[in-house]
Amino acid sequence: MTTTYGTEDPGDREDDDLDQSLQNIVQAVRTAQRAFDEIGRCNQLLDHAQESGGEVIRELDELLRRREHAAVPALLDRLDGLAAEVARSEADRTVVSRILFGGRDEDDELAGAADEWTVPRLTADDLPRIPTVHDVEDPGDSTLEDMWERDRALASRQHEARRERTRIAAGHLRAVTGRAVDSFGTPDATAALLAEARRAYDLWASCAR
After folding, report:
1. Of 13, 100, 117, 195, which one has the fewest beta carbons inside 10 Å?
2. What are phi and psi of 91, to 5 degrees?
C-alpha cells in the first residue's frame, strides 16, 4: 500500500516483517520436527539392531556349548552387518543433532563414549600351558608299569589343560561379542570389539579343534 504521495506506508513494512517472521518460525518448527522424526528412526533402528544382536549372541552361546566352530563366522558376519547399519544411522543422528543443538561438540562426546568401551584382549600366551613329557619327572629306573602310569597321568593333565584353554577362549569370545552388541550406539567401539571377536574366534577354534 502507498500514500497519495507515492511513498510506502510504514505499517505495510511492519506487516511484511511479521509475515516473514511467522514464515521463519513455521519453517524452523518443520525442520525441528523432521529432525526429531529422524532421531526417532535412529532410535528404532538401534533398538532393532540390539535385539537382533541379542539373538545372535544366544545362537553363539549354543555353538560354543557344542564346540561347533565352523558355524561361528557366519554369526560374526551378521553382527558386522548390523553394526554397519547402525554406524550409518548414527552418522545421520550426528548430523541431525548438529542441526538441533548446533553449538555442541558431538565429536568430543562420541570420543568420550568410545573410551567407556574397553576392548579386552586375550592371546594364546595368556592361556594355560599344555604340559609335555619334559614336565614329567623320571626316576631313571622305572618299570614299564611306572612309565605307562606316567604317560597316562600326562595325557590326563594335557586333556585338562586343553579343556581349560578352550573354556577360557570361549568365555572371551562370548564376552567380546556381547560387549560389541551393547556398544552398537558407539560405532568406533563396536568396530574395535568386533575386530577382537574375530581374533577371539580364531583362538577359540584352534583350541576347540
Report:
1. 13
2. -65, -40
